[in-house]
Amino acid sequence: MADSPLLWWRRQGLRFRLTVAAAAVLALALAVSASVLLSVLDRALIDTVDESTRAQAQAVRVAADAGTLTSPITTHDGTIVQVIDDRGRITHVTYGADRLVPLLDAEAREKVLADGQATLLDGRPYAIPGFLRVIVLRADRGQTVVAARPISEIQTSLGTAGRVLFVGTPALVVLLAVASWLMIGRTLQPIAALRRGASEVTHTARSRRLPVPQSRDEVHSLATTLNDMLARLEEAEQRQRALVADAAHELRSPLASIRLQLEVALGHPDGQDWQETAEGVLEDTMRLSRLAEDLLALARLDERGGVPARREPVDLDDVVRQVVDRYGEARLTVCDPVVVRGDALDLSRVLTNLMDNAVRHTSSKIEVALTADGVLTVTDDGPGISEQDRDRVFNRFTRLDSGRSRDEGGAGLGLAIVRETVRAHGGTVSLEDAGPGLRAVVRLPVSR
């Protein structure tokens, strides 16, 4: 079954379609313009002939009224003139004009006089080639002046102009179509370069970028946008690879510990303290569970695209009291009533992670404060963190002390969860020097 014209058209290349569309529009415009030009030219030339003929007729009428007509009547532009008396006889004519038969009979003359406009007359019955434009004026003593002017020259000129346009218009359309084909092809070259560049961006060449044209046009903006997208995709892929590698590294330690304990217990069952083995395996299992929960929390934050799971009014002071009550070494110094919009469970996890981090590093005390402007602080008196590392600790799987045993700390995901959650709620989180110790500062927008 043959394809429909519309389907065939859609399958053609953009360059072909643009060229054909431009040529079609141009051909239509030129055809309309040529038609209008010939029509206007014809009207203008006919009006010129009519004005000239009327001027000659008026000059003859003046002479007829004054009785000074000559025989034959003399005209300078070849106008044919007949003067007819009240009895319908031709009394004066120009040289070569018919003295017996009027160009217009009495009825036709009266009609032209009533219209006041020139009329078109076939001159062949009067041995005059071509058509004539005829003007009729009434003179004194019942006389009528009939003036006629051949328009064969006008018709010849219009025919010549029509033939020129008939030949020149298609030639011009073809010329402009070729020019459009070349210009459109040159315009589409940057897009073709983008396509070739995109085909080269493979799995093994992720760092390549698309070529950006020098012109500051839409293609330049498209190439810049696509390169920004490629950079974001590359960055996301690198983060994903780092996350998988770090997660595998973190999972390997507790799994290796579980395997070692079980192998030792099975290798020496008689001398093994199974209670101690079970406690060790349970501890490593809890570490795996916490790591899985942290990874799931980060995955959900990434999936939501920086938006909290719920946006509802949350009494942040109640959340703070409930969390602090679970830590005996913590002291709540200030707790003003504060209402924020977000998810209560996520905000509780933020404070829990900050508290766990403070408990892990504090020497003796932890102080928590919540002020009315939505600022939550958790302060410990531990060793603190150097200024150059305070932003880096919010990265995933970041450990400042690489030699420290993982049994003494977390997987390095707690502060990353804190930052992503606070950002999702429209706030910020930072670390400050507490001299001695460290102060975590969370700023959340207060619901008005």
Automatic annotation (TrEMBL):
Gene Ontology molecular-function annotations: phosphorelay sensor kinase activity
Domain HAMP positions: 185-238
Listed SUPFAM superfamilies: ATPase domain of HSP90 chaperone/DNA topoisomerase II/histidine kinase, HAMP domain-like, Homodimeric domain of signal transducing histidine kinase
E.C. numbers: 2.7.13.3
Provenance organism: Nonomuraea deserti
GO CC term (a single one): plasma membrane
UniProt superkingdom: Bacteria
Reaction(s) this enzyme catalyzes, per UniProt: ATP + protein L-histidine = ADP + protein N-phospho-L-histidine
InterPro entries: HAMP_dom, HATPase_C_sf, HATPase_dom, His_kinase_dom, HisK_dim/P_dom, HisK_dim/P_sf, Sig_transdc_His_kin-like_C, TCS_sensor_his_kinase
UniProt cross-references to Pfam families, sorted A to Z: HAMP (PF00672), HATPase_c (PF02518), HisKA (PF00512)
Residues annotated as domain Histidine kinase: 246-448
Keywords, alphabetical: Coiled coil, Kinase, Membrane, Phosphoprotein, Transferase, Transmembrane, Transmembrane helix, Two-component regulatory system
Subcellular location as annotated: Cell membrane
Protein name: histidine kinase
Classification lineage: Bacteria, Bacillati, Actinomycetota, Actinomycetes, Streptosporangiales
Coiled coil: 219-250
Main location: membrane
TM regions (residue ranges): 164-184
